[in-house]
Amino acid sequence: MPRLPPGTVFDIIDHLADDLDVGTLSTCSLVSLSWMTHSRAHAFSKVMIANTTRLRTFLDLLHGGGHSFRFCVQELNVGSRASGVRTDLKRSDLVILLGNLPTLVSLLLANIVWDDDLGGKCMKHIPYYTPLRLTLLKLVNFTVRDKALSMVQLSSVIHLFSGINYLALLWDSDVEFSTDNAVSHACAKTVALPQLGELSLLNSSLNPRIIKWLCNGGIGSSFKALTVYVADESTLAALGQLLRSSGQLLETLSLYLHHDKGLQNIKREC
């Protein structure tokens, strides 16, 4: 694929706006210095940031202030699942993104290397930040650098929101999971987590621990729909605990069962 010459991003945005006689583009995945200095007010309903360099540039743009597009963005993707490149994301950076995009309803964090530089503070302890309620939060290949993933890191993301209608946790491969006291510490803090409407767990190796964490945190009863990949008895045992804690609220249960012929989907209305 040929490389675009410098300044092309500026020209593309100008051209589209002039030809369509509108100041709105539905999607923006091009972030550059020329775009930052563009004076025309554009609105983007979806912003895609593919790597750490573009993330830093976009954060610099937000620091400048006075950008009307901030009030139109509904969907934000940070990181790229397709490229396989890891994107470094600090919790303080995510707070800046969320604080500057008040209309956001969907967030995807893909191939993210997470750094909780705020020390696990709940959203109510972060000054000047009003938590959003998301329709969708999707974490794909969510990891931390040079150590095992624990529930502390997962909860540090979820703590930033007032509510999440649909939470999806996906991993393409096994992730080392922490079994130290930090996990118990995270479980104790889940009383402050937002309620979750629907949960999708499609990774067999982590599902038992994630399910037990949600149950021990007292939020297992908040799910209306549940989708789980089941590959062994430990997942079934954990799932049983979650179902017992769900009471009468659970409406739909979808199980993906692994067998010799592949995956089989079993869906039941509760």
TrEMBL record:
It comes from the Eukaryota. This is F-box domain-containing protein.
